[in-house]
Design a protein that fits this description.
60% of the residues lie in helices and 16% in strands. The N terminus is likely disordered. A two-stranded antiparallel ribbon has the order 1-2. By secondary structure, the chain is α+β, with helices and mostly antiparallel strands. Helix 1 runs antiparallel to helix 6. A hairpin with a 6-residue loop joins strand 1 and strand 2.
């Protein structure tokens, strides 16, 4: 089940020639990308990498696109002092409230990798259910 994000794209210059105007287009982040994000981030954190390094390595695994940009923004947020859950909350089109709240609980209890593993399993089951329902 794809998730849609609005992303501004430049249009022609205004008649006055000053600045650009923007038009919003819909781009989608597939649930399989969110699943991949949760699985890989869990693995990277579980193997002892810092969150910053894990996000950097994870962003490199996406060649381009909206998910890569989102991960880079999350990395920037975390570097700037936000927690992972605070940063995820900035992207409600990508990460559900449940994701954010569970990651927050994991941060409080010190078990973020396990939470991410559970979230990826939950996403996978949801995708299978949707595929079955058609």
């Amino acid at each position: 089940m794809p998730i849609e994000l609005d992303e501004p794209t430049p249009k022609k210059r205004s008649k006055t020639g000053k600045g650009l105007s923007f038009q919003v287009t819909k781009q989608k982040i597939a649930s399989k990308e969110i699943l991949f994000f949760a699985e890989r981030l869990s693995l990277l954190l579980d193997t002892g990498n810092t969150l910053h390094i894990s996000l950097e390595l994870l962003a490199e695994q996406f060649e381009s696109g909206l998910m890569r940009e989102t991960i880079l923004k999350i990395q920037e947020d975390v570097t700037g002092g936000l927690s992972l859950s605070q940063s995820l909350a900035k992207y409600p089109e990508v990460f559900s409230r449940t994701h954010v709240q569970l990651v927050h609980a994991g941060e409080q209890g010190g078990f973020v990798p396990q939470v991410l593993t559970q979230l990826s399993e939950m996403e996978e089951k949801r995708d299978k259910l949707y595929a079955t329902l058609g």
